[in-house]
Amino acid sequence: MVTSGNTVAPFPEGTGRQRPRTQGQREAEITQRLIRFKRERFGRGPGDIKTRIVQDMVIVRMTDALTLQEEALVQSGDVDLLKKIRARLLEAGRPELDCILQQTTGCGIASMYADLCPETRERVIVFVLAGTPAMTAH
Prior knowledge:
By secondary structure, this protein is an alpha+beta fold. 39% of the residues lie in helices and 27% in strands. Helix 1 (23-42) runs antiparallel to helix 4 (94-105). The longest helix is centred in the first third of the chain and has 20 residues, at 23-42. The two termini are 17 Å apart.
């Protein structure tokens, strides 16, 4: 059984050995933890979220990523203000995000980049890790 924060999953019953979690397992755990993070911070999670680990990066794509208040900012033409607010909120959540990635990949955040497309209501975040996670194939 894999638990939050562990970097290993058990081998088949009776062997007593541990193996690294697969990339797919880690991506799924990051996705679930980011949904929880978004719900706690913004009152709702994204409509859909996809997470991919590529070498030393975690790439997250969220659809239907705006709250009703953010939709109002887009409608009034205040996209730049919305992007500034989102950037500050992301930076404020960095310690928690670093913890999520440290626990799921074994690597903390070296840097992070994000952008929001108001037309499609999508948001992309790229976390550059402070190392390359060791893992097994999907």
